[in-house]
Amino acid sequence: MRERQQLDDSINSILALTRSLDDNIELIAMGEEEGDKSIITDAENGIREIKAELDKRQIEMLLSGEADGNDAYLEVHAGAGGTESQDWASILLRMYSRWGERDGRKVEVLEVQAGEEAGIKSATILVKGHNSYGMLKTESGVHRLVRISPFDSNARRHTSFASIWVYPVIDDNIEVEVSESDVRIDTYRASGAGGQHVNTTDSAVRITHIATGIVVQCQTQRSQHKNREQAWSMLRARLYEEELKKREEAANEVNSSKTDIGWGHQIRSYVMQPYQLVKDLRTGVESTSPDDVLDGDLDEFMEAALAQRVHGKDADVQDID
């Protein structure tokens, strides 16, 4: 029923846009016959609005994957480099949180491991909203930052790395069976803000899937039971994402444009010094306003990466008809 509703919405939207385009074309012809420039102007504005709506629909075309419409989990992990990378990881966490908020999505922090001096070692957020996974899925990979370090008394330039991993929240229509005998469950005391209770009870939960080595953890709830329930949901989602990745790799076995996801496969550079530039190394999309990008202005990068997945290495979002 959900798939049928999505198809109905898409078809009805295209039919409505087609009717609106035909009506505006007729109005232009009428305005030209009657010599009424106001009619022509109104019709031209209407066509511009249709074009803007089509641009939005263009992105929807790229989000046709099995789980693209679902909510998403996003993990941030600091790379080697101590405080520098941990600070960079916290900046990325804020960037994706701001992206979600700017796009009208709900962002929930599920787990944060604070750094020793600053920043974070890792964190997991839940991004809720239509097509959250579809929009975020191409963000998985290594992100590089080049800047004058605020932690270096000699003001030297440093390069820091952090990785992003995105996987979909699975809904009631998707069943992933995992036995308790297949996992190891550990409880520990949560860290970070949260009051006295955080430091006195083993409420945080970590689940390790033995066969795959996948580890998930949750510490945001005071109740160990609720944290365990959330961690199980995250584990099922990770296992489902692994299966999706296997299917995609099989389907794209001969597609040389496919980018491996993993440490050492850098997807984007954020340069603050000696010049200002954010560049996606897969699509070539650039921005000379790193501050805007780090404040969540990511749509152009996401859309180009989605277009590349669908249309090949040299495609960008403008190439879609």
UniProtKB/TrEMBL annotation:
One Pfam family recorded for the sequence: RF-1
Record note on modification: Methylated by PrmC. Methylation increases the termination efficiency of RF2.
Residues bearing PTM N5-methylglutamine: 196
Segments forming domain Prokaryotic-type class I peptide chain release factors: 189-205
GO cellular component labels: cytoplasm
Keyword tags: Cytoplasm, Methylation, Protein biosynthesis
Protein location: Cytoplasm
Source organism, top-level taxon: Bacteria
GO MF annotations, alphabetized: translation release factor activity, codon specific
NCBIfam families: prfB
PANTHER family: CLASS I PEPTIDE CHAIN RELEASE FACTOR, PEPTIDE CHAIN RELEASE FACTOR 2
Function per UniProt: Peptide chain release factor 2 directs the termination of translation in response to the peptide chain termination codons UGA and UAA.
Family classification: Belongs to the prokaryotic/mitochondrial release factor family.
HAMAP family: Rel_fac_2
Protein's name according to its UniProt entry: Peptide chain release factor 2
Source organism of this protein record: Pseudochrobactrum saccharolyticum
Gene: prfB
